[in-house]
Design goal:
6 helices, 3 strands, alpha/beta, three-stranded parallel beta sheet
Length: 154
């Protein structure tokens, strides 16, 4: 089978853009913020397919997701070839949410090529009658089955 790498954003250091002179926008410049952002992108770029599993926080993905996405310039450094390779990588998205499916879908369009709809699976703890804060959605066999079917789809 294929090798699987799980990147758990909650355990990583991901800082938002702040208090710099936009060095990453300058030719040969590097982002002065030292965290895990570049290593996450490097790992993604070595992948054949990427799955994003995102929880809903007040209608949107977590602040760490937004900080990671915002900091993409630290990795791409205005290199159109690297950006094109990233955009061409097959990606699928699982949103753990009881609402705001349209917002998630709209946000994930930034991760796929223009004119492409992101492949989304929405899982709701409410559908399975469990507390969303318990963090046990994947203990529900029906939820695991939905994810397995989503992953198997070409």
């Amino acid at each position: 089978g294929k090798e699987v790498h799980i990147v758990d954003f909650s355990k990583l250091s991901i800082e938002p853009c702040n208090h710099c002179n936009c060095e990453c926008f300058l030719p040969g410049g590097n982002c002065p913020v030292q965290d895990d952002v570049v290593s996450i992108y490097e790992e993604i770029m070595q992948s054949e397919k990427v799955y994003f599993i995102l929880a809903n926080y007040c209608g949107y993905p977590s602040a760490k997701y937004f900080a990671w996405n915002e900091r993409c310039t630290a990795f791409f450094k205005r290199d159109r070839e690297v950006m094109a390779k990233y955009m061409a990588l097959p990606k699928k998205f699982v949103a753990i949410t009881n609402s705001n499916m349209d917002k998630f879908t709209e946000l994930m369009k930034a991760q796929v090529p223009n004119g492409t709809e992101p492949e989304m699976l929405f899982l709701s703890s409410g559908k399975f009658k469990i507390n969303s804060l318990a963090g046990n959605l994947m203990e529900v066999p029906e939820a695991r089955e939905l994810v397995a079917e989503f992953v198997k789809k070409a």
